[in-house]
Amino acid sequence: MWTKQGCAGTTRRELLWQMGAGFPALALADLLSGDGFLGRHAAYGATPEATKSIRKKAKSCIFLFMFGGPSQVDLFDYKPELQRRDGQSIDNEFRRGTKTKAVLQASRRTFARHGKSGLWCSDALPHLSKHMDKLAMVHSLYSDSFAHGSALLQMNSGRILQGHPSIGAWLSYGLGTLNKNLPDYVVMLDPRGGPTTGAPNWSSGYMPAKYQGTVLRGEGNPIINLTPPPGMTKQAQRQEIDALNTLNRVHENTHQGYSELAARISGYELAFQLQATAPEALDLSKEDPRTLEMYGIGQGKPDWHSLALGPSPYGKQLLTARRLVERGVRFVQCYSGGGGAGGQNTWDGHHGIEENLRLHCPEIDQPIAALLTDLEQRGLLDETLVVWGGEFGRMPVSETFNTGGKPGGRDHNPKGFTYWMAGAGVKAGTAYGATDELGEAAVENRHHLRDLHATILHLMGLDHRVLTYFHGGLNERLTGVVEANVITGVVA
Amino acid sequence: MSLAMLPLRIATLIFPMLVCTIVALAAHGGGLQNVTQDSRGERAIAIRRFEAKVRPLLENHCIPCHGPTAAKAGLRLDTKLGYATPGIVIPGNPKASLLIQRVRATTNQMPPGGHLSSLEVDALNEWISTGAIDPRDLKQPHADSGKGPQLRARPFRLMPTDRGWWAFQPIHPPASGITIDRLIAQRLSTRGLRMSPVATPRERIRRAYFDLWGIPPSPADVTSFEANPSAAAWEKVIDRLLASPHFGERWGRHWLDIVRYAETNGYERDSPKPNAWRYRDWVIQSINEDKPYDRFVMEQLAGDELPDGGDVGLIATGYYRLHVWDDEPDSTLAAEYDDIDDIMVTTGAAFLGLTIGCARCHDHKYDPISQRDYYSLLAFFRGIDPYGQQKTGGGGRGTGNILASLKSNPKEQVLCVQENGTKLRDTFVLLRGDAQMPAEQVRPVVPALFADQGNITPAVLGPVGGKSSGYRTAIARWIASPHNPLTPRVMANRVWQHLFGTGIVPTPDDFGATGILPSNGKLLDYLASRLVGGGWKLKPLLREIMTSRAYQQMSKNGQPLASRIDPENRLIWRQSLRRLEAEAVRDSMLCISGDLNTNMYGPAVFPTLPPDLRDSGNPANAGWVDSTPDEQRRRSVYLVVKRALKIPLLDALDFANSTSAAGVRPVTTTAPQALMFLNDTFMHDRAAALASIVLKESPTDPLGGLFQRALQRQPTSKERAVLGKLSKNSARSEDFVRCARVVLNLNEVIYVD
User: Would an 8 Å CB–CB cutoff place A226 in contact with chain B?
Assistant: First the structure.
């Protein structure tokens, strides 16, 4: 969580010294540089040589998580062969180790090349397609699980087993804080609910709880206990904290050498400030109306489908994300799709991929395009990494299990799927790797998703081989014990 | 600015400013050394960083000349003491530290053979700038100290020295006449130190209550002990506390951390583990009746197989059902091994202090446990049918049929272990841990390291009652044997940890090479001997420790020399100020406000969640039915433990992670905690209840009554003055509740001397 150890002293620098004791000193270096004090310093564990190659190190990461598993063959991974062979029967591995006959289902979308880069994008995402020159596509990712629960955990924590720290926790642990008044790691959920498995997706696992993600809520209190109960005024609370501080300091003076007492005193101060600074960071009302409009905020719910939300909720998430990274938040994860998996409330298009795309693409398309524009206009794209993807992709064959026998659904597919990245350090306008001619499995420049994690860490200035946490007799890494490699093909 | 310019800029601009900062800090309060003495979680991180980055480079580059064999220039870098000469390492000030100056020097640079890489210099720099935390033992440098974990030679081969590892040696029986206090005093005297004075009677009785019950004493309890703080009265206090059922509620929770107790499976559906609470109640009951620890082990591992196990034994085997369980794994075969691995890892950590799981995919890199040993141990558990999986074959993930009926009442069902017959399934070494790559077949035998220690080889029993193989009884007997060198040490260390804040071995789940060495090995062996010699009963051991002079010391830093030589108090020259754990904080608040419902046992209590959490669409919310307000005021050990949705109040205060064995909880201090203390409805309800009960009990001196309830002392004149200003009319409850709120938030309430 935010604010590491607090401080007994009053100057910013004293605070930094004390905070430096709490997490890797790179964070300290970063803090000092954030203060205009030290300039850029070599990343923790990275050699100066390695750091030189990272021309632009991302300060923050916005992870756009399409919960349910978006369909690569309908969005970015254009497969003429699939289009040609629509309706043909193939042997398909529907769950690990089981082959069944299945019918190929061409995308009902129209694909085109866009921008100078000529990257493919379907007409499902008309706004985003104008930004293809900013993106680096990885078409050749694969992972280890066909099921939502373990696949989500793996995308977030590197493991299909529950109990490991999520990538945001690793970044928080490895990089430390840039803004003591806000969490390092923020998670925003779809109004339809959280992802399957819930909080373990943003858990700190075996690390201390302060590294875990803080869920910001769209309605009501954005952070638990951020506002006092009714009847308590700010002034009254201030008086109580003053009294508390006075008495706690007397106690502290009789307990020399226990710095946690001072830390708790400053914790109350920070908490009091947070009640003002956090709402300010989240308050979209001061934004230019044109900005709100650009993100699609205020557009009503479409009426053609009871689950449709339109772009407004995700637009609010992404505009909030921009405000948070502006204020130094390290990792912001924005979920699209929520509630239990298996229905059209998420990207889990078993019940009909077309309906699913019509529901969810308009919800994210305009907001993501706006985010990229906004970050660029504010000069933030150079220091912000944007990552888009889900827990897996989808099959090129039709799923009829959930559609009453009618073709139209698509099942899970961890064997080949697409992620894209944009922003700091990313080789913009790149398409890298490929699935087979039908879009089913990664075949060219294949990368396990641990390589995606290594790449994200790399772009954030961290070396996945060096960023370790000692637990259970092992120096644990986000990328696990199997060797992982940065996907250099998408790194500028 | 280019990187190349950086050093210059640091030197010219920053360095003088930092020096000023350090001077200012040193003048302020306890100085830098104290600044870095953060909570245990922070320290643990600093130690990990040291182990990962600093120790290896010292060993590679420095210790060959500045270590046990050479010690050139009188400098040794293999222990903390070896560089204690002022100026070599100045915590917080790398620039001024001779060590940094010499590795950065252009002439006579160290090490002489070749420069440290910039990465290594950075690591040293970082280490010193963040306080130079060095966990290496303080004892006089000798030939063996300072060796970090050494990578084992490959291929795996047991070495004669493996037996020599301290934790694998037989427990040394204590010399006659030895006591805890003598062992500590001896250790202190080698460093010219002595114990601190005894704490005040109030501090001592509060410490005993929090340690044994997790709630504060009543004002009357404190007053009467203060009136007669004799040794006999102290013993009476301890006996009374140990005899109360509150003791099991407090210490049972410690065990639940280690077995990663939770009442749901985690993953996508976070489905419930039906009747898991019976296992929780079994733990509490076992501790309250002072069940011998060997029996406690036996029942959990093999209660269903024991001839006299009965219903109690069956319930205890709920131990095997506590792990996370994926109902829809990618591969059911791999998942089956993941389940058993989770049980193996927890069993290794909980009972043996061994990181067995490291040998799942390859031989252990540091400890003498081969991959073959891992699978040979796993074979003992091959009869277990996790979640009925074996009955459904390879395709499904089990029947979920994990309950059995109690013999005494067939209508009552219990979460328990299950085997499907007397035959163990075949077990193979799995290459790289991959279930698809079975290699050599293995039999159930204990690790080769222990194989020829005669009397600790398990006598494999015949099949038990036709239902199971009996192999779990065999491994349980080996673990619970008085001759097992690990089991008694590991448990004695846990007991010590919960009475002093840190174990004699600070890594209670890892007694291997990657753990931290005992600060006082003789003391640990003494305690382990007393545990076994006393019939494995915990209460007499606790009683002996708590009646020692060492336990009763004050926690204040009254010895400047000791603070300097041993700031971490590993030699136990004082007690330690400790923050209460999450449950003890909540229970104390309920107790102080007069709201605590002391009913014991039964199904989990569901507290009302903050409204923001209720409707977040999390599947974990499904089936969450708030318990009655009365129920919600029960002790925290009875609150539901759901893996997908931790109770925010407990979670904020570092509640157990509940997915892996955790003998130590991190202690973090964060702003969200303060938000919780300031704004949570629970806290406001407690303040209101406290104000109203105090106004009733002490209408003439409400402030006095308030301090008595919360802290069992009278307020000072300063406290009266500060709170008096806050509450113009203390007889009015609307005003007085503000005082109550401030008092509940005092550090003194949750930090115990």
Answer: yes
Pick from A161-175, A184-198, B237-251, B579-593: least confident: A184-198
CA distance A482 to chain B (A): 11
Collect all residues with Cβ–Cβ distance below 8 Å to A218 and sequence separation of at least 6.
Answer: A188, A189, A191, A313, A316, A317
Neighbours of B84 (CB within 10 A): 13
Q: How many CB pairs under 8 A join A and B?
A: 360
CB count within 10 Å of CB A276 equals 11
Exposure of B448 by Cβ count < 10 A (0-12 exposed, 13-18 middle, 19+ buried)? middle
Name chain A contacts of B567, Cβ cutoff 8 Å.
257
Residue (of A90, A156, A87) closest to A441 by Cα position: A90
- Helix or strand or coil: residue B286? helix
C-beta of residue B370 within 8 angstroms of C-beta of residue B156: yes
**pLDDT in the model for residue A405:** 66
Burial group, residue B151, by CB count within 10 angstroms (0-12, 13-18, 19+): exposed
What's the CA dihedral at B499, B501, B505, B511 to 10 degrees?
Answer: 90
CA A424 – CA A236 distance, rounded (Å): 45
For residue B127, which residues of chain A lie inside 8 Å, CB to CB? 25
Of B255, B248, B338, nearest to B284 (Cα)?
B248
Put simply, the answer to whether B130 touches A25 (Cβ < 8 Å) is yes
Using CB atoms and an 8 Å cut-off, which of residues 77-116 of chain A contact chain B? Answer: 96-97
Q: What sign for the dihedral angle of Cα B105, B110, B111, B112?
A: positive
> What's residue A491's pLDDT?
96
CA torsion, ordered A403, A405, A410, A416, to nearest 10 deg: 150
Pair A85, A104: CB distance under 8 Å: yes
pTM equals 0.79
Please report residues of A whose CB lies closer than 8 A to that of B41: 208, 210
pLDDT digits (tens, 9 = 90+) for B186-214: 999 999 999 999 999 999 999 999 999 99
* Residues of B (343-362) whose Cβ lies below 8 Å from A: 345, 349, 355, 357-358, 361
A194 is written with which tokens? Answer: 């959280």
Measured from the Cβ of residue B560, the count of other Cβ atoms closer than 10 Å reads 9
Q: Which long-range contacts (CB under 8 A, 24 or more apart) does A286-289 make?
A: A287/A319
Q: According to the model, what pLDDT value does residue A325 have?
A: 96
Write down the mean pLDDT value for chain B.
86
Strand partners, B404: B414
Tell which residue, A66, A63, A215, A61, has the closest CA to residue A148.
A66
A214: left (phi over 0), alpha (psi -120 to 50) or beta: beta
Residue B439: is its pLDDT beyond 60?
yes
User: CA–CA separation, B329 vs A40, rounded Å?
Assistant: 44
Q: Output the DSSP codes for A466-488.
A: T--EEETTEEE-TT-SS-----G
Beta strands in A144-268 (DSSP E): 185-188, 214-216
* Close Cβ partners of A310 (under 8 Å, ≥ 6 residues apart): A296, A299, A300, A301, A302, A362, A363
Cβ burial B27-52 (10 Å sphere, 16+ → b, else e): eebbbbbbbbbbbbbbbbbbbbbbbb
Give me the interface pTM, i.e. the ipTM.
Answer: 0.80
Torsion of CA B540, B546, B547, B551, to 10 degrees: 150
Q: Among A448, A426, A450, A354, which residue's Cα sits nearest to residue A110?
A: A354
What average pLDDT does the segment B369-387 reach? 91
For helices A259-282 and B671-679, give the axis angle rounded to 10 degrees. Answer: 80
- What's the average model confidence in pLDDT over B662-679? 89
Residue A359's nearest CA partner among A348, A344, A369 is A344
Distance from CA of A5 to the nearest CA of B (A): 6
Task: Tell which residue, A124, A109, A120, has the closest CA to residue A78.
Answer: A120
Spell out, as residue ranges, where chain A has pLDDT lower than 70: 1-56, 96, 401-405
